[in-house]
Amino acid sequence: MEDIKKIIEALLFVSDSSLTIDRIKSVLALNSTKEIQDALSALSDEYEARKGGFYLHAVAGGYQIRTRPEYTKWIKRLIRTKPVRISKAAMETLAIVAYKQPIVRSDIEHIRGVDCGGILRTLLERKFIRILGRKEIPGRPLIYATTRQFLEIFDLKDLKDLPTTEEIEKLGNTADT
Amino acid sequence: MEDIKKIIEALLFVSDSSLTIDRIKSVLALNSTKEIQDALSALSDEYEARKGGFYLHAVAGGYQIRTRPEYTKWIKRLIRTKPVRISKAAMETLAIVAYKQPIVRSDIEHIRGVDCGGILRTLLERKFIRILGRKEIPGRPLIYATTRQFLEIFDLKDLKDLPTTEEIEKLGNTADT
Amino acid sequence: MPDEIYKVQLDGVFEGPMDLLIYLIKKNEVDVYDIPIALITDQYLKYLEWMKSMNIDFAGDFLVMAATLIQIKSRMLLPVHEDEESEEDPRLELTKPLLEYLQVKSAAEHLSARSILGEDTFIRTIDKEDYLTAGEDEIINVDLFELIDAFKKILENISDDQRLDLTADRISVKDRIAQIVDLLEKQASITFGELFSSDVNKGEIILTFLAILEMVKLSLVRIVQHVHTGIIRIFYL
After folding, report:
1. B10 contacts A68? CB cut-off 8 A
2. In this predicted structure, what is the pLDDT of residue A38?
3. Torsion angle, alpha carbons of B103, B104, B108, B114, to 10
4. If 0-12 CB within 10 Å is exposed, 13-18 middle and 19+ buried, where does residue B145 land?
5. Within an 8 Å CB–CB cutoff, is residue A139 touching chain C?
6. Which of B6, B67, B147, C86 has the fewest beta carbons closer than 10 A?
7. Is B150 exposed, middle or buried, given 0-12, 13-18 or 19+ CB atoms closer than 10 A?
8. What whole-number distance in Å separates Cα of residue C171 and Cα of residue C148?
9. Please, is B144 exposed, middle or buried when counting C-beta atoms within 10 Å of its C-beta (0-12, 13-18, 19+)?
10. Residue pair B65/B11 in contact by the 8 Å Cβ criterion
């Protein structure tokens, strides 16, 4: 019984979704539902008694270890502070600006094939890119380029440090590992 | 103190990389290193005392909650994820980068005697290695080094934690005979 | 020999010439410091022949090594003169890299034997989205490789003629533009003299000049020459 409890704890710990009793039964190759139920409630009692950072949550017919809501504030601070996180769409846009700078929005959108207004604003706010000026063509569109902070974040001395496209291609395709 | 311990536990529970004391300090907006260290060792002691499914592990200059190795068998039955499996060729390339970093591709290939482009790309993709910059020699080749994630995956506190090649050889020789 | 090779084949094709050499040295139980070069060269070449006969593609590196082996073998055959005692053993050319490669192999084995995260021990995998309020899509950690990868994916979708301007030269010009803009952001205008004074070599001067031309073309700057002093000044627009 002691052991089953520990195994279940390890399973709950690594699982990214809630675990049903049936699932636990099949992993442990056990027949008895009761044994698992007892282990789960013992775990839950333990977590309640120690009042730590997490608890056992019963959801959607299963069980899950969750952090206590009172610590969400801190978790958000952890996730939001460095290391810098960026959405995939923003990364693509940033890559285009980095390699094709100075570049105007319509050219970026031509390459990506979608509207980039919102993303460009976010990148500007986060100081990854800056406005260099306006291009003297009809509409006088804004010209974008990367910032010093961009270099710092990507650990580059200068733009010359960016791998060239030939180098990227020379690396070839992912080898089978 | 009690509260800091709980918050740190919650942070450790959600972080996908090992947390350094500095990182915890900045999230908690605390100045005292000692308070955090005390909380961490209290947590570690607790986990050791209850001998549950997980423990506090010091790795890559920080701390991380990991499942105890005795439950690996069960976890693998639960999560049928792709195993980390790294090919022999990739492991050799990674070893060269780890021991000779910072290093350029041609030096790696000189040692292995074969093209390593595809493998380097895979190692970059898996975030075992990263591009450090360029070497100021003709052609300005890219320089490679290992990542923090490399330390975490291979259970190293820091690069100095890697045994020297002489130490490995001694181990190897005794194993051979 | 062919039978043995066949057996080796089952263990996987040799990764490279070094791998094959080490296999041959281990199989013959010879000392890396005293390699019987004729024997090893012979077996090495036989293996290449066998690969050819089996239509197995092998990298040019195997041929380079074959040439090296043959060269060392022939140098070994040359008579050694008494007075040339100090001359290096030609086999050292092979011994040094072999030893280094053996070290790498042990280091790789050591790494594989360590407790590996995701294999021997696990951490929690959580969905960060639970804690993020903004409706951002897939979130990735910023890392130079991610940036390159994002760009590589874009490249795959654009035509060849659009990629021509992505050479290192172009990037240098862009870099220079960024530097000039940095200066102009600080002081609004700058003289030609100031811009070129720090440039020591011709290449750098050309680079600066190209950067200015590009900036004029982009209407980032305006260039004005003073009627009396002749000083050329660049203004940030």
Report:
1. yes
2. 92
3. 170
4. middle
5. no
6. C86
7. buried
8. 14
9. buried
10. no
Using a CB–CB cutoff of 8 Å, tell me whether C36 touches chain B.
no
Alpha-carbon gap, residue A112 to A94, rounded angstroms = 11
Decide if C178 and A145 are in contact by the 8 Å CB cutoff. yes
* CB within 8 Å of B123: residues ≥ 6 apart: B90, B93, B94, B97, B129
| Tokens linked to C57 | 């593609």
HSE value, Cβ hemisphere, 13 Å, CA-based, for C23: 18
Cα B95 from Cα B153, distance rounded (Å):
13
pLDDT band at residue C6 under the 50/70/90 scheme:
very low
CA A79 to chain centre: 9
CB pairs < 8 Å spanning B and C: 128
B129: enclosing H helix or E strand: strand B129-134
Contact partners for chain C, using 3 or more CB pairs closer than 8 A, are A, B
From its phi and psi, is residue A29 left (phi > 0), alpha (psi between -120 and 50) or beta?
left
Q: Show the tokens assigned to B25.
A: 């300090």
B108 CB-near residues (< 8 Å, 6+ apart): B93, B96, B97, B100, B116, B120, B144
Burial class (CB in 10 A: 0-12, 13-18, 19+), C21: buried
Distance CA A66, CA A52 (A): 11
CB spacing of C116 vs B113 below 8 angstroms: no
Burial B96-111 (b: 16+ CB within 10 A, else e): bbbbbeebbbebbbeb
B96/C contact by beta carbon, under 8 A: yes
**A136 vs C220: CA distance, rounded Å:** 9
Of residues B75 and C141, the one with the higher pLDDT is B75
Burial class (CB in 10 A: 0-12, 13-18, 19+), A55: middle
Would you say C37 and C76 are in contact if contact means Cβ atoms under 8 Å apart? yes
CA end-to-end span of chain A, whole Å?
40
Residue bearing tokens 């050889």: B169
pTM of the model: 0.70
Cross-strand pairs, A146: A129
Chains near B, with 3+ CB pairs < 8 A?
A, C
Prediction ipTM score: 0.71
Q: Which residue of B has its CA nearest to A170?
A: B117
- Tally: H helices and E strands in chain B: 9, 5
Euclidean distance between CA atoms B136 and B142, whole angstroms: 10
* CB contact B60 to C (< 8 Å): no
Using only C-alpha atoms, chain B has a radius of gyration, in whole angstroms, of 20
Encode pLDDT of A119-173 as tens digits.
999 899 888 999 988 888 888 899 999 988 888 778 777 888 888 777 776 666 5
Find out whether B143 and B134 touch, Cβ atoms under 8 Å. yes
